[in-house]
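On clarity, I found the account of how folds are encoded harder to follow than it need be. Since the whole study asks how a given chain folds, the encoding of that fold should be made plain. The format is easy to grasp once an entry is in front of the reader. For illustration, here is how one protein appears when written out as sequence plus structure tokens.
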Amino acid sequence: KDHASALSALSSAEGLSPEQQQQATFLAARALLTAGQAAEAQQKLKEIKDPPARLAALLAVTLAECRLQQDDAGDAERIMEGFIAENSRLPGLPEAFEALDRIYAHGGAASSAELRRWAGDSRNAQRAILALFYLARNEGRASKSEKSRQLFSEFLAQYPSHFLANEARAELSASQIGVNQPQAALETAKEGAGFRNSFVRAQAEAALGEFKQAADSFLQAAGAPELEMAALENAAVCALLSGASEGENPASLIVAPSGSS
């Protein structure tokens, strides 16, 4: 991408309202960050004073990403935890939690203390719901898999239609497979939608010896670019295990090396 051209266009824009100017400054900071100039991006963000509510979360996320890119994960964590604690009723809370989760993942074994506190605060329902989901994920990341499954189950029991519910089902199902509970994993994944649920459903079906169904499920999961190769390879293996010939196995044709017969 031509970041220099983007920066030039943003800097030369004229006739902007104060709010439009703040948006242009923010976009210039994002361009700098994307170009790997985190320190410059951080300085650019300082030019934005009293941002509108809809921009506040994006500013916090971008500032945290600047600090993370400068190898200061601790400061990035403090920025996002502070924003969520103090501005949780502003727009952009899901994006703020997603950014905090990326920071926790970068650290590898972050404390769940703040997530646990927010999940238990019934005075702020939206924050409590999001915190419960990310608490379940963070506990799994900390190798507390049983606690993670318990929390994901709690999340799904209370909020089965939440926009994160399908992701929760996929993560719960994957964890159940990890502790040799393929039947439970299959039941969990069957309730979910999306490519990740198709993938873990296929893993559960394969573990149960249902190879034809597993091959079909893996093929469905191959629609996601990040899952495509693993899904196709597993689909080919499962189709063969189900007794299908190579000619009846579409996945084997897709993953076969160029020039092979």
Notes: The mean pLDDT is 90.
